[in-house]
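Researcher: Predict the fold of LRRCT domain-containing protein.
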Amino acid sequence: MRSPSFPPWGPPPPLQLLLLLLPWPVWTQVPAAAASWGTPGALDCPEACVCAPGGQANCSGRALPAVPGGLNWRVRVLLLNHNRVHALPPGAFADAGALLRLDLRENGLRWVHARAFWGLGALEQLDLSANQLEALLPGTFAPLRALRALSLAENRLARLEPAALGALPLLRALSLQDNDLPALASGLLAGLPNLSTLRLRGNPWTCGCALSPLCAWLRGHPRHAPEAETLLCVSPGRLTLSPLTAFPEAAFSHCARPLAARDLAVVYALGPVSFLASLAACLALGSAFTACGARHRRRRHAAARRQQRRQPDPGPSTTSPAATAAQA
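Model: Structure tokens for LRRCT domain-containing protein follow.
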């Protein structure tokens, strides 16, 4: 009897033989699970979204009033643009800690809680453009230490505090165009050491002392603001349509410079001391005036008593009887 023959490459491994003997439904389980990521309402896909391999969840244009539920660590890209998300509550994306890109364009967004982006330490791109934001709370972007691109374009921002933007060491692109910014607060750009692209067009720049930090940054980074030559003043009248790049450092020499940290420390240290010294001086002066007034009154009373003692007493009458008869 001839022994069984095998192909030239040898007998099949035991694992392959085991897989060949398994029933057919086992082979279909893995493709079905992979396909479930791309269907709305699937186990791993956020609600009302369509997911694609690679972790992209497309929730665009679905009139969503809030961030959809079902976010998880498999989501890498979340497209929420063209919806109706008007507010972001605390921890709105806490379950999507691996998120790399977040698109919130054109939602009519008006309010963002200071802790809305907590848990997004890996986020690299954030688009908040074409919304209705008027202000941002301090610490809003503090958790986004890996952020590389931030767009706040086409909002209603009239002021952007350094505390709101915070320190973003990896940020390279910042879009602030088409807002209501008359100037940029001092220190706003200091926490962005790697910023290479700053877009600012479409803002009502007021060319006064408050614009000095921005003009200084533009002078020091001429290549990082591609629209710098088109940035013009809208006020005051005599400087209207003047380009921001035309102002040298000497143009702001009359402006009061902010105190250095050492000077601020001296002011804060001397402030309470000077207040207490002033209070003590006021009390001393008040006591002195009171003492002088009391001494003056005592002197007047003493003088009045001495004058009373010097006046003679009337005594009995000494008129003679003849004089009295004559008067009669």
